[in-house]
């Protein structure tokens, strides 16, 4: 009895445990105590257990008292039971012996019956084998009787005079031969069959020779009935492949030997196309009879159709491929990719046209599964062709990159030659005379590689250190020849990625030489290559090759824009500040020189701002105005910040010099002259401050001419306040004592 089926007496509701937990098979004392301690103290748990233990003892006493009479009578009822059991054991033993004896007798009878049945089955099998041998002998004798009823001369004359009758006789022989083959297979291994086998071989040889001769005669004379009887006979004896092979050797091969000639293909214009056209003409001109008989072509006469044949797949196609591979092996040479492409396209078109002649989808599937079909396609070394195209296309882009940042030819929609070459390379991957559908995945990979190489060119083209070195070298050479009015110009555009426009962004620096040692401009140009136009030029691609797959490449190219923008503004800042730092030379121009009071900005300001003006004029047709304004704002912010530091240092130096001179004058107690030695005029320091104020004022005017506001420049107001404040604090000139 399972513990779960026992009902324990119900305890008080105040117990800290459930009574049923004691009846579980996996009851654990430690776990029980741990669970109870979570709710009550150990003393309270002990009191509950003692209370419930007393209740269990009470319930047990009540249960015993309830069934006490049964407990007492139990021992009384078992008195004399052992004697009764001993009395039963004797007859049971006797019964067991009788059953064993009976079982032994029955087993012997069953064994005897099995032996008799085995003998009977053996006799039956031998009888069946004998009957099969008898059928084999009868079939052999029957066929020999039919064959010997006509001697060889009579049979030949019968074939010539009445080929239809000969075909009917052969069909009858084939039916009997089929039965002979069946019984011979069933009787395999019997001695008598080995004695009859030479006669069977003779019948087989004679039957095949007669069928071959009659089939050839039927094909030559275009006798539908004879061909039908022969094919049906071949099918009856399960020799359809022999018939297809015979047609291939007798009907197809001579025609292929005449048409497939390598000299004709090489010497005749469009020789390969002409050869394939003649090969395609073979089926309607020479195989119509066979196709009518086998049901490929529906004939006007409602005659019987002989199924099980596919002469186009098993007779015509193997001979075509065998002839091409043996006689025109140079057809598959991939040395010249253009020639290889033309040959491949013409050959694949021939295969497609041949497939359309098959007449059914099942026939096409059999053709494509044929070993010669696979062999023909494997002969075309497409990987070698792609490698040649890869070298050809990739070399053009690499050469363009190696040539440097040359300008695109006149009339091009791109600024740089490398951008034009990239676009031509991308388009060339998918144009006719280059792209082959089986290589779509390879050309797709090449497309991505070209874009990746282009993107790498963006990031590696003329690093900042090279820019500075090159600019310094140019500047030095220009100064040597006395040409100081030179400009360094920049211009670039960021991408505008619209929903239906996918663009390739290329920005690159280029130095254009003018004359021997002069430089006309230093440009950063933009070339936009539309992805959608690229896919318009592409043939239909697999679903996995879609414009969306270029998102990574587009993102990579777009990621170059911030870097190029940063390089652009850094370069402009360097070119501008090269002159702005000349503000530190202003004190040298006015101190102790008796120079007139300044009335206009310094010359270095025009030189410093000329690259920015040139940027606006040269980028009108290349860069969006908003982009150019961003460059100007960033450049002016950087330049103004650095210019502020320079001006601040100059003013500090001027102030220190001024204070030093004051102390010197006081020490000498002289009032004869001012700092410059001139009485009644402005001091050198005031001239310096005035000149700096005029320069900053001029800078604000030029910022407005560029389309910006001085308020757009972060440090300009601070700079202006600095120079104005310095000018206001200029000490009054003192004249005499």
Automatic annotation (TrEMBL):
This is Conserved oligomeric Golgi complex subunit 2. The lineage of its organism: Eukaryota, Metazoa, Chordata, Craniata, Vertebrata. Residues 666-686 are annotated as: Disordered. Keywords: Golgi apparatus, Membrane, Protein transport, Transport. It comes from Salmo trutta (Brown trout). It is found in: Golgi apparatus membrane. It is a peripheral membrane protein. One of its GO terms (cellular component) is Golgi transport complex. The keyword Protein transport applies. The keyword Protein transport applies.
């Amino acid at each position: 009895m399972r513990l779960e089926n026992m009902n324990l007496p119900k305890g008080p509701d105040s117990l800290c445990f459930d009574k049923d937990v004691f009846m579980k098979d996996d009851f654990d004392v430690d776990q029980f105590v741990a669970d109870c301690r979570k709710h009550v103290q150990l003393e309270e748990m002990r009191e509950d257990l003692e209370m419930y233990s007393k209740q269990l003892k009470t319930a047990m006493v009540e249960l015993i008292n309830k069934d006490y009479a049964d407990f007492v009578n139990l021992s009384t009822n078992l008195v004399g039971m052992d004697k009764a059991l001993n009395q039963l054991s004797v007859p049971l033993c006797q019964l067991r012996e009788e059953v064993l004896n009976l079982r032994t007798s029955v087993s012997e009878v069953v064994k005897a019956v099995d032996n008799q049945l085995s003998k009977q089955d053996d006799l039956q099998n031998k009888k069946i084998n004998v009957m099969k041998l008898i059928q084999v002998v009868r079939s052999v004798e029957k066929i020999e009787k039919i064959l010997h009823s006509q001697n060889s001369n009579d049979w030949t004359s019968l074939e010539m005079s009445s080929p239809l009758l000969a075909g009917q006789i052969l069909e009858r022989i084939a039916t009997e031969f089929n039965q002979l083959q069946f019984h011979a297979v069933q009787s395999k291994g019997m001695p008598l069959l080995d004695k009859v086998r030479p006669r069977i071989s003779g019948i087989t040889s004679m039957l095949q020779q007669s069928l071959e001769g009659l089939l050839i005669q039927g094909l030559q004379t275009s006798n539908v009935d004879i061909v039908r009887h022969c094919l049906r006979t071949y099918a009856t004896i399960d020799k359809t492949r022999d018939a297809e092979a015979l047609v291939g050797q007798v009907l197809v091969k001579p025609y292929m030997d005449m048409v497939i000639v390598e000299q004709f293909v090489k010497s005749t214009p469009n020789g390969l196309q002409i050869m394939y056209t003649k090969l395609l003409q073979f089926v309607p001109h020479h195989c119509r009879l066979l196709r009518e008989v086998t049901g490929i072509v529906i004939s006007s006469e409602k005659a019987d159709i002989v199924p099980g044949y596919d002469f186009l797949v098993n007779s015509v196609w193997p001979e075509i491929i065998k002839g091409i591979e043996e006689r025109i092996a140079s057809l598959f040479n991939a040395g010249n990719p253009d020639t290889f492409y033309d040959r491949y396209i013409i050959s694949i078109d021939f295969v497609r046209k041949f497939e359309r002649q098959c007449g059914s989808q099942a026939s096409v599937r059999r053709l494509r599964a044929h070993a010669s079909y696979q062999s023909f396609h494997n002969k075309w070394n497409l990987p070698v062709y792609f490698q040649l195209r890869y070298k050809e296309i990739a070399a053009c882009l690499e050469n363009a990159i190696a040539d440097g940042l040359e300008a695109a030819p006149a009339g091009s929609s791109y600024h740089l030659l490398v951008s034009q070459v990239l676009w031509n390379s991308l388009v060339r991957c998918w144009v006719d005379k280059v792209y082959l559908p089986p290589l779509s995945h390879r050309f797709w990979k090449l497309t991505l590689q070209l874009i990746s190489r282009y993107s790498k060119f963006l990031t590696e083209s003329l690093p900042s250190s090279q820019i500075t070195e090159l600019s310094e070298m140019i500047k030095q050479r220009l100064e040597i020849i006395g040409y100081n009015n030179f400009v360094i110009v920049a211009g670039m555009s960021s991408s505008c990625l619209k929903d239906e426009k996918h663009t390739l962004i290329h920005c690159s620096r280029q130095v254009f030489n003018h004359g021997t040692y002069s430089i006309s401009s230093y440009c950063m140009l933009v070339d936009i290559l539309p992805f959608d136009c690229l896919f318009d030029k592409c043939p239909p691609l697999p679903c996995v090759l879609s414009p969306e797959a270029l998102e990574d490449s587009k993102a990579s190219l777009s990621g170059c824009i911030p870097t190029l923008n940063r390089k652009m503004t850094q370069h402009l800042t360097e070119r501008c500040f090269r002159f702005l730092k000349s503000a530190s030379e202003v004190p040298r121009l006015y101190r102790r020189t008796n120079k007139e009071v300044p009335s206009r900005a310094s010359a270095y300001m025009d030189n410093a701002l000329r690259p920015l003006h040139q940027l606006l004029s040269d980028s009108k047709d290349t860069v969006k105005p908003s982009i150019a304004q961003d460059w100007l704002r960033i450049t002016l912010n950087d330049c103004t910040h650095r210019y502020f530091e320079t001006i601040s240092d100059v003013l500090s130096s001027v102030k220190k010099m001024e204070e030093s001179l004051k102390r010197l004058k006081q020490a000498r107690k002289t009032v004869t002259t001012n700092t410059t030695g001139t009485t009644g005029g402005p001091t050198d320091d005031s001239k310096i401050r005035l000149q700096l104020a005029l320069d900053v004022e001029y800078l604000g005017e030029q910022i407005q001419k560029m389309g910006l506001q001085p308020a757009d420049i972060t440090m300009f107001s601070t700079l202006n306040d600095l120079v104005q404040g310095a000018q206001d604090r200029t000490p009054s000139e003192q004249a005499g004592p």
